[in-house]
Write a structure and sequence with these properties.
Mean pLDDT: 88
Number of helices: 14
Low-confidence stretches: 1-19
Distance between the termini: 93 Å
Order of helices and strands: HEEEEEHHHEEHHHHHHHHHH
Structural class: alpha+beta
Length: 353
């Protein structure tokens, strides 16, 4: 049987290079994506992708193949380059540098392939990288220059932290998200970013508590089941397992105490450590009660900080600056941000304590 030209080329390439992932359309309509590992006069042995991470070998008769579509390696490589923009929020200068090097390497390795599009991608990444190097930050898909950040530092920092908490929730890291929110709420309570994030947290708290409540409701049964398992063990193995359980319990108790002492609010739960489950339910109920009665702040700390900083930057009168910083303090702007205003204000324009 005549060898398919794509297969002939690939059978040579696989001797020295990783094989391309091509598409094999069978006469029965089945489509296989993979590469040719071996070939004999009547069949191909293919390495096919079962999932993204799992591969398998499959022997396919040449007579059953209707069409082979060779993968365009240059275009496949470009598809990865294309995903580098738009760059996500909060990338560092080092993150941008890594992306820029990847694009520059593509231009060298794949000359002539989507060169205009690739150069446009490179130009966009370099332009944003320069803004980041100059002290800017990307937030909500837009670059906030350093000058704008300075004026709105309190609200922008709140938005940055809120974005990180949303990402934790999206990754189902609920405990970490709730812990981060406790610290976030203390620092940025009187900001629009906190008000926007609160509804999501009000959903996460009951979800986390439901999981904890389920662990509590099955705790006695699981302890009994563990005890039965111990009783079935041989006299030689049982003491070791019992000691391991005691050691784990001691470690859990130590961590629980440490987290309580650190006032984390949300402690690490363990399905066999009842104090951690009880504490989570108690703290969670308290948080839900607090949020149900909490009113929207009348004063916007982000605006108060911005108003004060703009007065300072525009060289307002000492009296006006003093009044603005005092207003920021009244609006609940966190002490570390009040310190920024105090440091930027002229000596005669600092708020009285």
């Amino acid at each position: 049987m005549k060898k398919h030209p794509f297969a002939a080329a690939l059978s040579c390439l696989t001797l020295a290079f990783p094989a391309a992932a091509d598409t094999f359309l069978l006469k029965d309509g089945t489509s296989l994506k993979g590469s040719i590992l071996r070939e004999d006069p009547t069949s191909y042995t293919l390495e096919v992708n079962v999932t993204k991470s799992i591969k398998d070998e499959r022997v396919v008769a040449k007579a059953d193949i209707k069409k082979i579509t060779a993968e365009n390696l240059d275009l496949t490589a470009f598809a990865a380059i294309e995903k580098l923009i738009p760059a996500p929020d909060l990338l560092t200068a080092a993150d941008y540098e890594s992306r820029i090097r990847t694009v520059e390497k593509f231009l060298i390795d794949h000359r002539g392939t989507k060169s205009k599009e690739t150069k446009d991608i490179l130009a966009e990444l370099k332009a944003e990288a320069n803004e980041i190097l100059a002290g800017g930050i990307k937030l909500a898909g837009k670059i906030v220059p350093q000058s704008e950040y300075r004026t709105n530092a309190y609200e922008i920092d709140a938005r940055i932290q809120a974005a990180k908490i949303r990402r934790l929730v999206g990754d189902s890291m609920h405990l970490q998200a709730l812990r981060e929110f406790v610290a976030f709420d203390r620092l940025f309570h009187n900001t629009s970013a906190c008000a926007a994030l609160a509804p999501l947290i009000k959903q996460v708290i009951p979800f986390h508590m439901t999981e904890t409540e389920q662990a509590l409701s099955t705790l006695d049964a699981r302890i009994k089941e563990r005890e039965l398992g111990l009783q079935r063990m041989s006299p030689a193995d049982r003491p070791r397992t019992e000691n391991a359980i005691l050691e784990e319990t001691a470690e859990l108790a130590a961590r629980f105490k440490s987290e309580k002492d650190a006032k984390l609010g949300w402690v690490t739960t363990h399905p066999f450590f009842k104090p951690s489950l009880d504490e989570t339910m108690t703290f969670g109920k308290g948080e839900l009660a607090r949020w149900s009665t909490l009113k929207t702040p009348l004063l916007d700390g982000g605006k108060a900080f911005r108003d004060a900083m703009m007065l300072i930057e525009n060289k307002g009168t000492p009296a006006a600056i003093t009044a603005a910083i005092t207003a920021a303090k009244t609006a609940g702007v966190a002490p570390r941000y009040l310190a920024i205003l105090e440091a930027a204000a002229p000596p005669s324009g600092k708020a009285s304590s």
